[in-house]
Amino acid sequence: MAASLLLPSPFFNNCGSVTSFQHSSDKLDGMKDFERELQELFDEVKMMIMMGNQNDAIDLLQANYEAVKERMNAGVRGIEEAATIDIIALGYMAIGDVKFVNALLDMLNEVVDSLKDDEPLLDSVLVHMGSMYSTLGKFEKSMSAYRRAIGNMESIYGKNSVFLITPILGMAKVLSSIGRTSKAVEFYHRAISLLESSRGAESEDLVIPLFGVGSLLLKEGKPVEAESPFLRIFDIYKKLYGENDGRVGLAMCSLAHVKCAVGDANEAISLYRKALQVITTSNYMALDDSIMEKMRIDLAELLHAVGRGKEGRELLEQCLMITEKYKGKEDPSSATHLINLATSHSRSKNYVEAERLLRTSLEIMGKTVGPDDQSITFPMLHLAVTLYHLKRDEEAEQLALEALHIREKAFGKDSLPVAEALDCLVSIQTRLKKDDEELLEQLTRVLSIQEREFGPEGEEVMITLKKVVFYLDKLGRKNEIFPLQKRLSALGMKFKQRIQH
């Protein structure tokens, strides 16, 4: 099975091993005709998918499935059957027929389990199985396939073979997905060592495992350790492509994440700005690329966090302008940028402009997702709070009630989103001097939901308890206050201890 059999899709770009396939092909001349047939099948399926002829691709895959199934029913279950099913499964994975891929993998497992470890092409099939299982979220089965592939390759090529890199990286990715970080880091470091010894310390191939290690360390709250692998990526790209290449810009972005995590906000801001400039001037990415957009938003959030809201707003305005230019003013992503801008203006107490932006976002969402979709309740509640700040309490109440009803229908009456809407409504209705008994009843409902979702000692629970005590006192229900105050006192002590530790 030659390396070029891999389909050019996001899944296939990560599921195979060039060296694994090619080595098997060179070693086993007797299988070259079979490999050529698989190559032709794969190329044909690949072309059909690229041209949008999905039905034709399915017909071709199904015909091959029926043929291999017939051979298996006749008792033939060798490596050729396994390799064919593997190709068919990869094809259906590219098409997106997950249910049938699961059935094919079950079928493939039966064949592979009966094969000896020294079968030609088996390592490649196992690597593909590991990748497909990982994509389907079946991590134990994925690790089992990768483990066997690694064991086979080690016994055939030795523990320092470059052919091991693909299954080792696959195993590292799976371990990361299930939270076994320290073990995943071990596998990434092993891949790094193998690549360094075979391709040199400045090989671009090192970027993937280095990025994997850096990202895991950041996620684990170890930014100081994460800086080293990200710096190596930066140096590799800079040496290979020059300091003005877009890849260098992406490496700068990773370093900005590190600086932000260690608390060096000014350096992080500087790196973000340089990264955006390099990527833009090099035309490495389109202005409306989602990665570029996220970088602008991340930088805007950081600028707001350090009190540089005006600079942050400029970036958010840029995001909105780019989206409107390339996708149109009524694209759903425009609504997101409008909401972000409204949040920025609210922070600066510019509630009039925040109101305008939120009403525009609601108009867009009303057309794209519909007036009763739960996603519309976020800007709706945001607008309610904005109107509250503008002392337009009746309008604010109506919006909060509408958001509450939509959320009750979408999530259920005892859900956390409903509690959030109720809490907002109580704040508005308090100033409208609504009945205290009704307000207390709503707060009790909020408290019940929060206790179930966050536990009896959650910070949110403590805040709501204080509100409940306030209304009990206002209503003169003194006998109900004492146990709640006692509970509040205990919660306050625990919360202080948490902050100290």
From TrEMBL:
Q: Any idea which UniProt keywords this protein has? A: Repeat, TPR repeat
Q: Which residues form the signal peptide?
A: none
PROSITE patterns, per the entry = TPR (PS50005)
Residues of the MalT-like TPR region domain: 125-406
**UniProt xrefs under Pfam families:** TPR_MalT
Ranges: TPR repeats: 123-156
Q: What is this protein called?
A: MalT-like TPR region domain-containing protein
Q: What organism, scientifically named, is this protein from?
A: Prunus persica (Peach)
